[in-house]
Design a protein that fits this description.
CDP_ALCOHOL_P_TRANSF_CS
Length: 303
């Protein structure tokens, strides 16, 4: 019988990063450390990563419901604080499902696709109600600002996730466990799922191929990858060329956007300009930064 691992040790073991080069700072130093507590708690239990993913979706939808009730004055301004706290919990659980999968030896493609769909299913309704709140408080010009910020955030998150996979594919041998895949692999699994998968699995794979991969190709010039053999020399050359860009781009991911979203909503408990301030950051800082970064060919696979 093996030695019993303490909770503290499980927490330490649960802080598993894909790579310091691609991790968002807010995730590495905040979200994932909170998620490690969840991972350590559920690791000895029968709960699977997809269970944590569904919990994240449920709590994210509760956050949107509380946000809606607050926006339409069903509850008081304390609802903003509750909605922000619930969204934070959803984000932490979103980190925990991947950490639990890696702690147990790696996840599956379907698990990653489900995780991506849940991210969108949490973000979109919350952002819509936040936009309605901005419209009711400040009028159409500020709502237009939020719309531009939201569209920009969607593109940035999608392209950053793809650039992250490309970077890992070219700097880490055996990076398939982190979501790196070829189109041939994706299509082969899709054919298998069409033969023997459930209706929901077919829906997820269809959405992934015709949604995320095609949109990634449109905005970033790369869909699924054409992987090549990674050597230590090629990895070092690729890292030397693109690491500064990836570190800069790491603030454009989902975790950073979520931090500003729930942070802005939290501030509504004290100032009506909390969410507008975050939209200004998205439009005046994140979008220009994305435009500059996108001109650097991070998506190129050859170093």
């Amino acid at each position: 019988m093996g030695a019993r691992v303490s909770f503290v040790q499980r927490v330490r073991d649960s802080i598993v990063l894909k790579s310091p080069d691609v991790e968002e700072p807010i995730d590495a130093y905040f979200h994932r450390r909170l998620a490690a507590l969840v991972t350590a708690a559920v690791h000895p239990t029968p709960l699977r990563p997809d269970h944590i993913t569904w919990m994240s979706l449920f709590i994210g939808w509760v956050a949107s419901a509380v946000m809606a009730l607050t926006v339409f004055d069903v509850v008081g301004d304390y609802g903003y604080i509750a909605a922000a706290a619930l969204l934070l919990i959803s984000v932490v659980l979103d980190c925990a499902d991947g950490q639990l999968a890696r702690a147990r030896g790696g996840g599956t493609r379907m698990g990653r696709i489900l995780d991506g769909l849940v991210d969108s299913a949490v973000l979109v309704p919350f952002y819509v109600f936040m936009g309605i709140d901005i419209l009711l408080r400040h009028g159409w010009p500020y709502f237009a600002l939020a719309a531009v910020a939201g569209f920009g955030a969607w593109i940035q998150i999608m392209v950053y996730d793809r650039a992250k996979s490309v970077y890992l594919a070219n700097t880490r041998p055996g990076a398939h466990a982190d979501g790196v895949e070829t189109m041939e692999e994706v299509l082969a699994e899709y054919e298998e799922i069409k033969r023997s998968g459930t209706l929901f699995e077919r829906f997820m794979m269809h959405t992934y191929i015709n949604g995320q991969l095609k949109l990634s190709e449109k905005f970033s010039g790369s869909g699924a990858l054409n992987l090549r053999e990674v050597t230590e020399e090629s990895a070092q050359a690729y890292r030397a060329r693109f690491r500064p860009t990836m570190r800069l781009a790491s603030i454009l991911g989902l975790g950073t956007h979520m931090f500003f979203i729930y942070g802005g909503v939290l501030l509504l408990g004290w100032s009506q300009w909390g969410t507008v301030a975050t939209q200004v950051v998205f439009v005046t800082l994140f979008i220009p930064m994305f435009l500059v970064i996108s001109r650097i060919k991070v998506m190129n696979q050859a170093p």
